[in-house]
Model the fold of this input.
Amino acid sequence: MRILVCVKRVPAPGARINITDDGQNVDTTHLAFTTSPHEECAVEAAAQLVEEHGGEAIVLTLGPAEAEEQLRYAVSVGAQRGVLVLQDDESDPQRTSRALTTAIGELEADGPFDLVLFGNESADSGGFQVGIRVAHALGRPVVNGAKALAIDDGSVNLERETEAGRERYVLPLPAVVGVKEGINLPRYPTMRGRLASKKADIASEAAAIDVIDGALTMELLERPPETESSTIFLGEGPDAAAAVVDVLGELGVLS
Amino acid sequence: MSELPAGARCVVIGAGIVGNCLVGHLAKLGWDEIVLIEKGPLPNPGGSTGHASNFIFPTDHNKEMALLTLESQRQYIEYGVNNECGGIEVARDEARMEEFNRRMTSAKAFGIDARLVTPAEIKEMVPFITEDIILGGFYTPTVSVADSLQMGTLMRDEAVAAGALSVFANTEVLDLEVSEAGAVSAVVTDKGRIECEHVAIACGVWSPRIAAMAGANIPLTPAVHQMADVGPIDILQESNVELAYPIVRDMDTFCYERQSSGSMEVGSYAHRPIFHHPDDIPSIEAAAMSPTELPLTQDDFDPQMEEAIELMDMLGDAEIKYAINGLLSLTPDAMPVLGETPEVRNLWSAAAVWVKEGPGIAQLIAEWMTYGYPRICDPHGSDIARFYPHEKTEHHIYARCAEHFNKTYGIVHPREQWESQRDMRRSPFFAREEALGAVFFDARGWERPQWFESNADLLERYSGRCDPREHEWDARWWSPITNAEHLHMRDAVGMVDLTAFNEFDFEGPGAFDFLQYMTVNSVNVAVGRSVYTPLLTHDGGFRTDLTILRLAEDHFRVVTGAFDGGRDRYWFTRNLPDDGSVTFTDRTSGMCTIGVWGPNAQATMAKIVTGDHLPYDVTQDGFPYGHVREVLIDGVPCTMFRISYVGENGWEVYTNAEHGLRVWDSIAATGEEFDIRPVGLGVYAVTGRIEKGYRLMGAELESEYNPVEAGLARPKVKSADFIGKDAYLAARDTDPVATLCTLEITDQTSAAGIARYPVGGNEPIVTSDGERIIDAHGRPSRVTTAGAAPSLGSYLLLAYLPPEHAIEGTTLGVVYMNEQFPVRVARVGGQPLFDPTDERMKTDPA
Done:
């Protein structure tokens, strides 16, 4: 099988997300970078499929040169190689999907990927669009929010959860799938995996991709007002019991 | 929760291992109204304690750190939070195996059970180790892991239960207020203001920020120590305990592997030095994990992972579950920063402390605050007052920390010299010395010639008495030229650059009384006379020793050494009366000093010294030993002081820095006919000194010992009161349980058949049977100074011995590099081996 996983480099936030003074970016001074949990699951799903069926999992990203870190991380947890489309500015979903579609076209010179996997949504902007736009541009079926995924003789069986129950889909391959966190438990990299990933082939596609702007522009990031949480000290040891009972009563959890 | 009090006796800031243990120890020592403030939540506020590996390898070559670590481990045991698992330092190369011999020696000195183990023995204890890449190991069964958070909680709770302490977490310090008199007076927090008498800063990596609020400087930098938790690993999981296997320190790759239940923690000191400014540490809110657990910079850690896998193959397939750039505190000399800040009274620093020494250091600070000086051990290596101004700058901190970070697991020679931040302080004679091929050693920024290559021709003249040392370790940072310079000085005359001396002037109507109160020996001497004297702690131990020149009725000049100048300056100024009756002037930077000694010193100086009446009489009759005179040398006003630290007739010559070069040149030119030579500090500080048995602060003289034990008690005690007098009188009335002795190695030949020369790094003195020697106060006998005695043709050691061994002629042993050499007690007490009656110093040369 040939599987492509698309990921996005995003800040790994602390408890409070700070915004730069110009309101255009998250202040990443003290932050590490990662991909969204959905994308980690997509990489894990691809790794498991390759382990089961053989083949190759390639991981693709659009981002700054530093995004190589996320590609190597994906390789350290089971992908075989990575492709980086260099892109320094923050990109909107239209622009991102155009660039990815072009990159996928080049990577598919020898035939289409059986599966193109996305995370359900990105961890920072959360547009829920890129996977669907790419599928549309490629003319392939797409299901987002997949919580189960299995290959079955030229098709992929998918499930997703709704409030009413579970939906099942069968898509012919090649297909595009948006994977949702919980579909699997992504592995941590091993030390050997990390070291091997340093030697992995990471191709840079900067020159080849002509990025066309989308219609969305960044106006301003604002932090939501902090929700005031106040702590009421109810007491210490057995003396606190009565007060705890009162609170639980007020909350209506005591019958 | 109770309200923040408006007043307190002491506010301790920071609830890491140090702050928690400090409030506990203060409460034990009787303090009450203590307030502990912590910005973060309890029990883990997010400082370095929270992510520390918590392990304790007790062996340290440094006495201060060894004692504090052992005491800390004892306290962890007392509180039931010490998990003993054993630890093995493994060697990948021969130099490390040699270092293990040295570690065995230090373990013996401080009474730590340890042994050398073979790769096969290591494999037996650590079945998952790749034994064929290691040459051997240094095994310490008592290595342990302490629960530092629980220890902190217990100490805190104990103080609360005693009614001595109230604790306020989630409380941020905004300001420290200082009174007009220069004492800390209040702590301002986001929850209110507390007026207080004392403030202790135990804020780890944030300490400089907090100190700066009061205008004080705690010189440290937050620095990264990388660590990763990898697992689960079957063999570790199957052990079903936190620590089933000894901790392994892979010394030559600067890494360690420590079991943590089912996984292994891999830590490193091998990566590039990575510093963070205290102002750039994220807040608790903005930190993904905690403020001191920053994202791992993976590229820095990769080489260490490869080496870790090399040592333990199973680590390669273990998952990296947690990996951080953990922050810890580094200081310019890798020692803690403890004591009252010199800038602000009653503002205490308890910073740059690791978990392994936390409780002991907390006790040390509590004692310091309670008794005016620590009792647990002499703190001179950690004392915040040790730093000179240039050493407290970020420039210096970053440069020195960058240099020593990768030596955390390094093999550091006791005489090892810094490479960075050199040439910070040069004497006026520097260019002359450089031209003479001086090899410079650093003395707190001063460049001091250790020996002169220009004197290499003397090796031939003194052939057979200045042989090279065969073993590289013994010869490192040493030259046989020192012996030759020594012998030449004894035969002719030498001149020594002593500009690194500190000169403190005390003037005014209260100067006499003040100094009388500070010193053991009376300063009630005539103008133009001098006093050598110890200064004591309140407990009667050595605080320092120095020389005082009485230049006028109300004008005294204190001369003290480079290494303790900062501490001495603090001690004097801290005790200075505030009524204006005494002025203090630090004249160090404006002065320079040349020592001129040897049988031809008098003849040399006779030619160029003049005074009001020409010619000037420089004979012992005209200018007796111990006297101080204002003279002209080649027309330059100088202060001449007839004294010697090397046992020869001669002087210390002081003059203003701008005159220095002329005086140097003049003495050198005049002395030419007497074959005057520049002589390095190798003679002044080691060979000349040890032949005369002169004691050195920080080596022989420490607060654990008193003048009776050191052989420095005079026949009478002055009537005036002075610091430590009661304790001193008591010591004089008691038979000493140890006496400082001079020992001679009677056979230096090692098993390998070569002569060895102990470098003087706490080598234990043992009985002929190899038993440790401990005095009645529990102090082990160990080498405080070692050095060649070229004039005696022997190699000498200084060490305190209990009475049963302090008998001249007794045969004992010294352990050096894990090998025992026989020594003979050559002298008990202060009398020198060389020229015991001081004839050479005090009579005119023949």
Notes: Helices of chain A lie at 37-53, 68-76, 93-107, 130-138, 191-198, 241-251. Chain A touches chain B at residues 12-16, 18, 29-32, 69, 187-192, 194-195, 198, 233 (CB under 8 Å). The CA atoms of residues 112 and 182 of chain A lie 27 Å apart.
